[in-house]
Design a protein that fits this description.
7-stranded mixed β-sheet, 6-stranded parallel β-sheet, 12 helices, 17% strand, LacI family transcriptional regulator
Length: 363
């Protein structure tokens, strides 16, 4: 009888141990992903990438963002709730860095790695962000300058003091790091191309407009090529549209050769001022102006497909989400991590349906 009871106790102990082991085995590391938004198609692509990485690396994630990018306090509450679940790492695209300073400090004290993604956490305290998964906005906008330069090079060559030319860069604001990088990347690349690949030099170029986009070493005294950095009065659609209309009114008088819209909001402003882009081709004054956009959206895709725009730059939101979770997982595992450029591509009416582009240009 005693032997039977002993055997039963051993079997029960073994069963409990196996069940406990299985329970531990099934418990996956938890990574919190807090985004700037969730409803926009861009963020849905980021979410798809994050979920794919969660599957590949065997982790559980939550992906959440506020209803709009002005809902800073809602994002802060989401971050607080996520931290209360004891994540092994956090991926964060902060709407406002100053609003999450306490959370960054708490994460640092608790040894929780924080990975920035998309625009990350600009000017975060040193050591609080382990790495970033984001587009190299400077290089991506430089690609737009290269594509535009190919088309307008001969007209730039023909510029004189008596008949100068202008290239316009539309920027939503003068504070967001990603937008500043785009404006500066386009500006610097265009200056370099003109200086190196035409008979003109930096002495023939002047960068004008919003001072936030004029660097100490930017050429400002030239009188043959003007690169105008425009920022609407606010981020509101009406102001973006008004700024676009004011610029379009000077296309002929200022001899504007090209327009670069550095984000979806400025693209929408330009489209609103041109009957969804149709006026860019139907109006003789605009038909030779080369326009390049940034990101996607149904209206912008339509403008590219109809060749109202030469093309646009698309980020890779899927890779932004994937790499954010991958970096978070590696940081949790104690592996070294560093910033990752998630890439960008130029699309036009010819390649926008190609397999490597189509999935990146959301509606």
């Amino acid at each position: 009888m005693k032997k039977t009871l002993f055997v039963l106790m051993v079997l029960m102990l073994l069963t409990s141990t196996i069940l406990l082991a299985e329970g531990v085995k099934e418990q996956k590391p938890y990574i919190a992903v807090v985004s700037k938004g969730e409803q926009h198609d861009f963020w849905q692509q980021v979410k798809l990438g994050a979920n794919a990485a969660a599957t590949d690396f065997g982790v559980d994630i939550t992906f959440e963002g506020p209803p709009s990018e002005s809902d800073v306090q809602i994002q802060v509450e989401m971050l607080n709730n996520a931290m209360a679940k004891n994540p092994v790492a956090i991926a964060l695209a902060a709407l406002n860095t100053s609003s999450v300073l306490d959370q960054l400090q708490q994460a640092k004290e608790r040894g929780i790695p924080v990975i920035g993604f998309d625009s990350g956490v600009p000017e975060a305290p040193a050591g609080s962000i382990w790495a970033n998964a984001s587009t190299n906005n400077y290089a991506a906008a430089g690609m737009a300058a290269e594509k535009m330069f190919e088309v307008i090079k001969s007209k730039i060559e023909a510029a004189t003091v008596a008949r100068p030319v202008k290239i316009v860069v539309m920027n939503q604001d003068a504070s967001g790091e990603s937008l500043l990088s785009r404006g500066k990347g386009f500006r610097d690349t265009m200056i370099k191309l003109i200086d190196e690949q035409t008979s003109l030099s930096k002495n023939d170029i002047a960068v004008i407009g919003n001072t936030a986009y004029i660097a100490p070493d930017s050429p400002t005294k030239g009188r043959k090529v003007f690169i105008e950095m425009i920022v609407p009065a606010s981020a509101a659609m009406t102001d973006a549209t008004n700024a676009s209309q004011a610029m379009l009114n000077k296309v002929t008088s200022d001899n504007i050769l090209g327009i670069f819209c550095s984000n979806e909001a400025t693209v929408k402003g330009l489209l609103a001022a041109t009957n969804d882009g149709a006026t860019l081709k139907s109006n003789p004054a605009f038909k030779d102006v080369v326009v390049i956009g940034y990101d996607a959206g149904a209206a912008q895709k339509n403008a590219v497909r109809n060749q109202y725009f030469l093309g646009s730059i698309t980020q890779d939101p899927y890779q932004i989400g994937y790499k954010a979770v991958e970096l978070a997982y590696k940081a949790y595992k104690g592996e070294p991590v560093a910033d990752v450029d998630t890439g960008a591509k130029f699309y036009n009416y010819q390649n926008m349906d190609d397999p490597d582009i189509k999935g990146l240009i959301y509606d």
